[in-house]
Amino acid sequence: xxxxxxxxxxxxxxxxxxxxxxxxxxxxxxxxxxxxxxxxxxxxxxxxxxxxxxxxxxxxxxxxxxxxxxxxxxxxxxxxxxxxxxxxxxxxxxxxxxxxxxxxxxxxxxxxxxxxxxxxxxxxxxxxxxxxxxxxxxxxxxxxxxxxxxxxxxxxxxxxxxxxxxxxxxxxxxxxxxxxxxxxxxxxxxxxxxxxxxxxxxxxxxxxxxxxxxxxxxxxxxxxxxxxxxxxxxxxxxxxxxxxxxxxxxxxxxxxxxxxxxxxxxxxxxxxxxxxxxxxxxxxxxxxxxxxxxxxxxx
Length: 299
Description:
By secondary structure, the protein is α+β, with helices and mostly antiparallel strands. It contains six helices and 16 strands. It has helices at 15-23, 26-34, 41-60, 92-99, 129-137, 207-215, and strands at residues 6-11, 66-71, 84-90, 106-111, 143-153, 158-161, 164-168, 175-181, 189-193, 196-199, 228-233, 248-252, 257-261, 266-270, 278-280, 285-298. Strands 1, 2, 3, 4, 5, 6, 8, 9, 13 and 16 form a ten-stranded mixed β-sheet that branches. A six-stranded antiparallel β-sheet has the order 12-11-10-7-14-15, with helices on one face. Helix 4 links the parallel strand 3 and strand 4. Helix 1 (15-23) packs across helix 2. The protein is globular. 37% of the residues are buried.
């Protein structure tokens, strides 16, 4: 007998909850902000809107379904199941934080603060939750398959991200490496830079776009469902031993970019989650390309 669907509600601590965790009470947090010319009122209002959204979404889950709730900090310890419907309640970035732990489960994005969030991935209001849950489990339910990017190290470590993957030094140092096409016979160009960014069409609304604009790149930005990635080297440094001839490009399906480490340590992390990173040392290599899995976003 097949299991009933399980609604997994993903959320994160609000700014108000973080203030209480730091200062202990509402009064102390309010005093801390007021002494700096700021008010706690707007932060508290956003907190209450988020709590209301969580209550409404939980109430919209059908009685025959199972349900669970997970906070962002616990995502790497939560076991998602094939029959799950994932409901992300919060900001766009929370969808990206969740995507790397999924394997095809439908995702519903609920915006807790319309007008303040861009709404690229959290496209729906809390009042739509019941209808969206039905759509997610129906045979004809509409969803977009958003392209993801992956990094695979030579020791089989793997990292997947929805927006972008960054490779670079863990601090404010210079990363040294060789950069070339995956599968090519040439060793690649020796480079020294502050890192390499490889991004998707979803990431083209964020960090990837800022680099694209800064460079005045002629490469067209991909759309979220396009099987295409763009990559940029950040602040490449020319010297007698390092070059700058390969600082931008694009990757299609089946194509890869290979980076071989030539410094003590390089970290690889996705979607800003530096706490969940791969660490590579001298001589190791990593391949960047389009991931086989995608994010199934209910529309």
